[in-house]
């Protein structure tokens, strides 16, 4: 399950305080760390909901992006402070192997989902904890080609996206965070093309999309404050297709005001050609799957070929 509902957020928060202190005993450094992070998670959620409330009444998306950024910065600092206090006493928190990014992703998706529902669109992508509900995304097609056709029935989960104002877009249904593409000659430029990897045994994914592209995004403090950017698998990449549109076949949030010199914070670009996935074509392992965003074609091609890339992070 890619989308984590609010119940999962509560479960993760509860896990931080799972090791309750024995009655009458002093709290351990680990328990204090857990308590601090539990409080931090709550404050971050409240901060985001406050920003959503101001957006609902004022409609200023620029102020919203700034507010969300401040919430994230406070969250990261408070989380790191709790960890540092525990480490100074030779202790660690219990959330491993989860990291701050995992909790932040869950809270981001949950608070955005709440805001979407309050706007009258319902809870997008909610599933039960067993992962058996929810269904697949709508294809995006709204033109009907007769009774029972996709454009007539429009089955599936409605799409919902949030431009985070920092060069990233969050899919509120899947919980994935996507890199935006620019037209400024930077590492994010829509015209950059990369090789997948080795087209001979053992067919390793070690091409320039890893050594140049991902290496740059994850260097230092990471792009948009994250260092876990990766290449999407085939189905994650296909989830970006919006089949009512062509050239490119994506939602408008991924193709907005793409003009020369624009950056990831001022525009959003998508090439109408092939983007690499991280998935190998199993029957012919010298090939990897790609998605072409002109008409939505999915196929495999040689791993030494050059294609476009868009990074993603998060997911289950």
Strand content: 5-15%
Q: First CA to last CA: what distance? A: 6 Å
Most strands sheet: 4 strands, antiparallel
Average pLDDT number: 84
Walk across the major sheet and give the strand order.
1-2-3-9
Return the domain count: 2
Radius of gyration: 21 Å
What is the oligomer described by this structure? single chain
Structural class: alpha+beta
Number of helices: 7
Q: Specify the helix fraction band.
A: 25-40%
Give the uncertain stretches in residue-range form.
Answer: 1-8, 17-23, 125-133
Q: Count the E strands.
A: 9
Name the overall outline: globular
Series of H and E elements:
HHHHHEEEEHHEEEEE
Task: Provide tags for this entry.
three-stranded antiparallel beta sheet, 9 strands, alpha+beta, globular, 7 helices, four-stranded antiparallel beta sheet, single chain, 316 residues, 2 domains
Q: What's the topology here?
A:
Layout: H1 6-16, H2 29-58, H3 61-88, H4 100-121, H5 150-153, E1 161-163, E2 168-171, E3 177-179, E4 194-195, H6 208-217, H7 234-238, E5 274-280, E6 287-292, E7 297-302, E8 306-307, E9 312-313
Antiparallel strand pairs: 1-2, 2-3, 3-9, 4-8, 5-6, 6-7
Helix pairs in contact: 1-4, 2-3, 2-4
């Amino acid at each position: 399950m890619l989308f984590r509902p609010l119940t999962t957020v509560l479960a993760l928060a509860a896990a931080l305080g799972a090791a309750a202190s024995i009655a009458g005993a002093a709290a351990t450094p680990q328990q204090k760390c857990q308590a601090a992070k539990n409080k931090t998670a709550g404050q971050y959620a409240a901060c985001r909901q406050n920003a959503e409330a101001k957006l609902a009444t004022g409609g200023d998306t620029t102020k919203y992006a700034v507010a969300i950024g401040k919430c994230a910065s406070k969250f990261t600092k408070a989380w790191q402070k709790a960890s540092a206090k525990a480490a100074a006493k030779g202790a660690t928190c219990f959330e491993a192997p989860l990291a701050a990014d995992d909790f932040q992703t869950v809270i981001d998706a949950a608070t955005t989902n709440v805001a979407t529902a309050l706007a009258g669109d319902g809870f997008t992508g909610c599933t039960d904890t067993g992962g058996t509900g929810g269904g697949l995304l709508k294809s995006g097609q709204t033109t009907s080609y007769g009774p029972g056709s996709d454009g007539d029935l429009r089955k599936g989960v409605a799409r919902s996206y949030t431009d985070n104002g920092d060069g990233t877009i969050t899919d509120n249904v899947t919980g994935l965070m996507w890199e935006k593409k620019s037209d400024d000659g930077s590492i994010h430029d829509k015209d950059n093309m990369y090789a997948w990897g080795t087209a001979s045994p053992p067919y390793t994914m070690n091409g320039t999309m890893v050594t140049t592209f991902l290496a740059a995004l994850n260097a230092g403090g990471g792009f948009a404050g994250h260092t876990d950017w990766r290449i999407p698998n085939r189905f994650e990449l296909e989830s970006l297709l919006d089949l009512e549109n062509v050239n490119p076949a994506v939602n408008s949030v991924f193709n907005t005001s793409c003009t020369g010199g624009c950056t990831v914070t001022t525009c959003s670009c998508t090439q109408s050609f092939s983007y690499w996935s991280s998935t190998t074509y199993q029957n012919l392992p010298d090939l990897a799957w790609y998605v072409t965003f002109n008409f939505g074609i999915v196929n495999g091609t040689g791993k030494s070929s050059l294609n476009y890339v868009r990074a993603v992070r998060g997911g289950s």
